[in-house]
Amino acid sequence: MELTTAAPRRRSTVRDADGMAVASFILGLVGLLALNIFLGPISIALASAALYRGTTRRGRALLGLGLGIADLLVLLAFMSADSTLSWSF
């Protein structure tokens, strides 16, 4: 008796990449308002992974990448203005 295994399904990989693209966009958007020191790099990593895996939501992944970079730029602007490592309340 010969044992065969099924080939990995391509659709689940694309769906995972699409989910990463959407998550990157949402985290980048929320990161502009709060926790940008954490959410910015996570958004950049998710967007990069989604683009690498060939997402069908390429525009959303690129927006997530841009928003993640904007998160870090906003953080740097506030750090230079306040001479601190985070937002001051």
Summarize the model shown.
Helix content is 72%, strand content 0%. It has 89 residues and is mostly helical.
Q: What can you see in these coordinates?
A:
This protein is an all-alpha fold. It has one domain (14-82). The protein is 72% helix and 0% strand. It contains 3 helices and no strands. Helix 1 runs antiparallel to helix 2 (36-52), helix 1 packs parallel to helix 3 and helix 2 (36-52) packs antiparallel against helix 3. The N and C termini lie far apart (70 Å). The model has no long low-confidence stretch (mean pLDDT 85). Keywords: Membrane, Transmembrane, Transmembrane helix. This is DUF4190 domain-containing protein. The chain crosses the membrane at residues 20-49, 61-81.
